[in-house]
Amino acid sequence: MFDTVIKGGMIYSTAGVFEGDIGITGETIAEIKEGGGLEGEHVIDATGKCVFPGFIDPHVHIHLPFMGTNAIDDHGSATKAALVGGTTTIIEMICPGPEDEPAKAFAEWKELAEAGCCCDFSFHLAVVRFDDLAKEQLRELVANEGVQSFKIFLAYKGALDMNDENLFKLMQLCQELGVTLTAHCENAEAIDSMQKKLLAEGKTGPEWHEPSRPRSVEADGVNHLCSFAELTGATIYIVHTSCGIAIDRAIEARGRGVDVTVEAVAPHLVLDKTYAERPDFEGAKYVMSPPLRDKEEHDALWRGLASGAVSTIGTDHAPFNFKGQKDMGKGVFTLIPNGIPSIQERVDLIHTHGVCTGKIEMKTMVDVCSTNVAKTFNMYPQKGALAVGSDADMVVYDPNFSGTFTHEDGLSKIDYSGFEGMARRGRSDFVLLRGKLVAKQGKFVGETAAGLYISRIN
Ligand code: URP
Ligand code: ZN
Ligand code: ZN
Q1: Among 92, 160, 240, 359, which is most exposed with the fewest C-beta within 10 angstroms?
Q2: What is the pLDDT of residues 300-357, one digit of tens each?
Q3: Ligand 1, residues 63, 153, 287, 316: which to mutate, most atoms within 8 A of Cβ?
């Protein structure tokens, strides 16, 4: 007799996809039985539904001091939204300022996450300061705290960016420590010049955000990072890749032996740059970096996912209210805080726009939104797998649910939805975190701050 049995669902297990039962004891998957027949104290009927490993979001911002303000979510609101959307583990970006010590930043973010996270969590640590003290602390955080990935920004001049001397040395350090370097690939100097030129020409609205950082700038950033990776041997992970030529640069480097993984994020797969051109400043809701591109780029991203060129899908959840935050940039688009939240919508967006349209298989959705993330960031098979011994994080998913994305259903504190009114296919009907039911048909039913820190020491 198991504590809980998930009964009769189509199970996406590590051993294949089949109909059957999953038995849970405590926080762990104890048995998976094709054909069924398991008995439990609690039973969740999954007939006609899919059973997936809990989804993992590899790119989340919650505590984010950025562009003169702070992202609006706290760890409670963001992770309740995540769980309702089927995400049971997040990797948050720790983004300290240029003067901040990495160790203090790590402690600050971890304390906030422990006090609020309702799902499990881990971190990528952004390296902005890189003096001797910072280097020493980075080594200690890797050795003692299970930090396994750093983050750098080739963007945001004067705030988060890094010069080439430090970048090269950091990549040597990553190689030495076996740490993956995740990277926002653009070019801070080129963007700064382009922004100044556009503003001087009176081009001040959100529609000018994309032209200030075109695809070539992103491709250049990817190429630059890949060249340094080739020279240093560092393992790299390119976040929020928005266009085909950026993927191409990464794949060319892979062909030269560079260990490079490519991430896409939900907004780039669904929204296009015409959203940022909406009148009356509404376009500001759709300002993120790299920017939303031409619709044609969606196909390049979906093709990349289908072929394996692109391995993961995150959200880049970075919520800034339309009123009181985005409007700081009215009249000067460079002051609009960058970000389009989607932590709750990610899986349903990918199901609706990727699986239901035949662009990717259901199994690919599971891989890119869960399994590949766990494998890339040292959490597998504890996370990202339906296998005996894995954490009992799972989603009973109704692929036939049909509805509409709307802000009203959102648990994030954000005051708008970037997907308002769009058709939605699919819903995470039951979400379990380490064996406990935490979300049911769009409602959070879990315990606040029950999430655990996932140390990723090998
Ligand atoms: O627009 C974005 N992506 N905002 C969050 C910060 C970042 O670059 O990831
Ligand atoms: Zn970024
Ligand atoms: Zn980001």
Answers
A1: 359
A2: 999 999 999 999 999 999 999 999 999 999 999 999 999 999 999 999 999 999 999 9
A3: 316
Please answer whether residues 178 and 150 qualify as being in contact, where contact means their C-beta atoms are separated by less than 8 angstroms.
Answer: no
- C-alpha 387/C-alpha 31 separation (Å) is 8
**Residue 407: count of CB within 10 angstroms of its CB:** 14
* Ligand 1 atom nearest to CA at 289: 1
Atom 7 of ligand 1: nearest residue by CA position: 289
Whether residue 83 contacts residue 118, with contact meaning beta carbons closer than 8 Å, is answered with yes
Task: Please tell me if the CB atom of residue 316 comes closer than 6 angstroms to any atom of ligand 1.
Answer: yes
138 within ligand 1 shell (Cβ under 6 A) = no
Q: How far is the CA of 45 from the centre of ligand 2 (A)?
A: 40
Q: How many CB atoms lie within 10 A of CB 70?
A: 15
- Cβ of 188 below 6 Å from ligand 1: no
Torsion sign (Cα): 137, 378, 455, 100: positive
Mutate to test the pocket of ligand 1, among 57, 94, 240 (most ligand atoms within 8 A of CB): 240
Q: According to the model, what pLDDT value does residue 457 have?
A: 79
Q: How far is CA 12 from CA 9, 16, 402, 439, in A?
A: 9, 6, 22, 20
Ligand 3 centroid to Cα of residue 290, in Å, is 10
Measured distance CA(59)–CA(304) in Å, rounded:
18
Q: What average pLDDT does this structure show over 123-136?
A: 98
Per residue in 386-428, pLDDT (tens digit) is 999 999 999 999 999 999 999 999 999 999 999 999 999 999 9
Taking the mean position of all CA atoms in its chain, how far away is CA 55?
A: 10
Q: Compute the residue count for the chain.
A: 458
pTM given for the model: 0.98
Q: For residues 162 and 164, what is the distance between their CA atoms, to the nearest angstrom?
A: 7
